[in-house]
Design a protein that fits this description.
Length: 152
């Protein structure tokens, strides 16, 4: 039986509100590592479908693929050593594609306990500071330019 490896193609999904509150989730295996929803593409699924699937798997939120905005931004970065065993031998870099999902207001989500241990909703500024990933920080810092503020 051959091992199943992750594809070095993934999505980063910012879940936010119109007031630019951002959902962050804390990795179960790495306390203190806060991030948005992320995950690898499976097979040849469209990236928007990857975003939809990962949000449902990691948060329990069900939204149609059409609700996910493709930012047409991708980041290529070196895979951290602690996660390289998930990829085929010799794979050292990943290409991450940025998407967002806007919810009317913050909601409690159902975390996948084997992946995440806590959740919080923060202002976009505080969320950017809390993320361990530079690509996640950069995406959150772009949020004000990608959304128009609408008071609730």
């Amino acid at each position: 039986m051959s091992p199943s490896f992750k594809q070095p193609v993934s999505v980063l999904v910012l879940i936010h509100t119109p007031a630019r509150q951002v959902l962050l989730i804390e990795r179960a295996a790495h306390p203190g590592y806060w991030q948005s929803v992320t995950g690898s593409r499976e097979g040849d699924e469209p990236l928007r479908e990857t975003a939809r699937r990962e949000v449902e798997e990691e948060t329990g939120l069900c939204a149609p693929a059409s609700a996910f905005e493709d930012w047409h931004i991708s980041n290529r970065f070196e895979i951290l050593e602690q996660w390289r065993q998930r990829y085929a031998p010799g794979v050292t870099h990943n290409t991450e594609h940025v998407f967002s999902l806007c919810l009317p207001e913050p909601v409690e989500v159902r975390l996948a306990p084997n992946e995440h241990r806590a959740q919080c909703w923060l202002s976009w500024q505080d969320a950017a500071r809390k993320c361990f990933s530079w690509s996640n920080q950069d995406a959150i810092l772009m949020l004000p330019r990608r959304t128009s503020f609408r008071p609730l």
